[in-house]
Amino acid sequence: MFLTEFFGFFSLSALVMWGFLMAFFFNLFVYSLGVKRNTTLLLSSFILFISYSSSDYFLTWLSIYKITYLDWALYDLATLIALAIAYKLIKKTTPSFFYLVLGLSINMNLLFFMYVDVFINNNNTPWFFWDIYTFGVTSIDFVMIVALIVDRDFLGIHKLKNKVFGQSNINTENHFS
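Structure (tokenized):
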């Protein structure tokens, strides 16, 4: 929990929300130039901005009960479903789409395991997994922001996926697999 102790919980969440807002504005600008119009890029950045902003606002500030890690995991699941609907509607993705799906899936699993550790196992003593959770979720959030802005396979995840699953010569600009 070093990051939240150093920066504060609300500072990190505000920074992540600001990052998704800037990614959405950047993609809105790119869309207005006529670039990448028939892809999920603009809609994906809008979905992530709305998801992170509303979850922070509604789940943190307006909640009538104590928020658990399971609530955040379910919110990530709802965001994944919204992205799947966007994909079904548009059917053409960009490299950032896979980064978003992978990042949200990892975040959702980390949140679920934190829920099990804290609320099911009643563990109140910080240990190594809590640090993995803190750095993992924060790092993945920033990777998703960068992926929405640069819209490139900057970590080589698409290449790794194609090698692992034996899919060569697939243009990631047109297909999500």
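The chain has one domain: 8-164. The radius of gyration is 17 Å.
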